Amino acid sequence: xxxxxxxxxxxxxxxxxxxxxxxxxxxxxxxxxxxxxxxxxxxxxxxxxxxxxxxxxxxxxxxxxxxxxxxxxxxxxxxxxxxxxxx
Length: 87
Description:
By secondary structure, the protein is α+β, with helices and mostly antiparallel strands. The protein has one domain. Helix content is 33%, strand content 9%. The chain contains 5 helices and 2 strands; from the N terminus they run αβαβααα. The protein has helices at 2-6, 27-30, 48-51, 65-68, 72-83, and strands at 11-14, 37-40. It has a two-stranded parallel ribbon with strand order 1-2. Helix 2 (27-30) links the parallel strand 1 (11-14) and strand 2 (37-40). The protein starts with a helix and ends with a helix.
């Protein structure tokens, strides 16, 4: 993801974080900041990983809602947009 974004390739970045940045990873540190990188975020809000200071190896919430609620249709739409396709 980082190499693709740095090389200028259209890049879709999938994160289990909500619009405020809460979620599965420290997105504000890890997400590429290139204009060609689209960062997808989940509609689910979960602060468990943040409260655990990201020291967990696996999800602490049953069913991993922060990633489960990021729908394939969101990813497909972002890919179509990055490729200039209409779906």
